[in-house]
Specification:
Elements (H helix, E strand, L loop, with lengths): L1 E2 L2 H4 L3 H8 L3 E6 L2 E13 L27 E6 L3 E8 L6 E12 L8 H7 L16 E5 L8 E4 L16 E4 L9
Antiparallel strand pairs: 1-7, 2-3, 2-7, 3-6, 3-9, 4-5, 5-6, 8-9
This protein binds a DNA duplex through strand 4, strand 5 and helix 3.
Length: 183
DNA sequence: TGCACGATGAAC
DNA sequence: TTCATCGTGCAC
């Protein structure tokens, strides 16, 4: 495995989203390295994208989205789950990719089919908000030999309020993978 | 300072 | 379809 460099994230958000499929998400917590293979993602394109948190402008919560690429944007949702994103493109662009599901690879016992569940299973919480993913204990890596895959695109989940942006096909997942979230 | 609601998940 | 549960953003 080779850890993804910052340049990987400093590219068009849709390109990064699709390219993240099949990569390994690694979090070392209390000496335990948990690894999941990314199988489902969603792209959030920036302040002009009405479904993105950054559409409301720079706030305390969204400041990481407005920061440099390659950092984790982790936030609490519905008072009980966390969601994890990776920040993309140049600083100030405020775009990110939401990780929606991973396939268990190592040291994962709980379910991972959904953004809240994958964070719980990989022990990802608010403390990791802003973490530099080119760092030591929390990163994304490319497998030694990538598996062939077909990518499916669909509208994003839970953003019906976003007008025509709700219809854009910005959700991507690996066709046929059993760990993709249901909906 | 108060309050409506959400990039969810599970039960009914 | 309803509910758990709380931080955020925006209205007063």
């Amino acid at each position: 495995m080779r850890k993804l460099p910052r340049a990987f994230y400093d590219r068009d958000t849709i390109v990064v989203a699709r390219d993240l499929l099949g990569k390994y998400l690694v979090h070392v917590s209390r000496g335990v390295a948990r690894v999941g293979r990314i199988v489902e993602v969603e792209a959030y394109l920036g302040p002009h994208d009405l479904a993105a948190h950054s559409a409301r402008g720079l706030t305390q919560r969204t400041q990481v989205m407005f920061g440099p690429p390659g950092r984790a944007y982790v936030y609490m949702i519905y008072g009980m789950y966390f969601c994890m994103n990776v920040v993309t493109e140049r600083e100030g662009h405020a775009s990110a990719v939401l990780l929606r599901a991973v396939e268990p690879v190592k040291n994962i016992e709980e379910r991972t089919q959904g953004p809240g569940l994958l964070c719980r299973a990989l022990r990802i919480d608010k403390r990791l908000n802003g973490y530099d993913l080119t760092g030591k204990n929390f990163y994304i890596a490319a497998p030694a030999k990538p598996e062939p895959m077909t990518i499916v695109k669909r509208p994003r989940v839970g953003v019906d309020y976003a007008g025509h942006w709700a219809r854009r096909q910005l959700r991507f997942y690996i066709k046929g993978n059993p760990f993709v979230s249901k909906r």
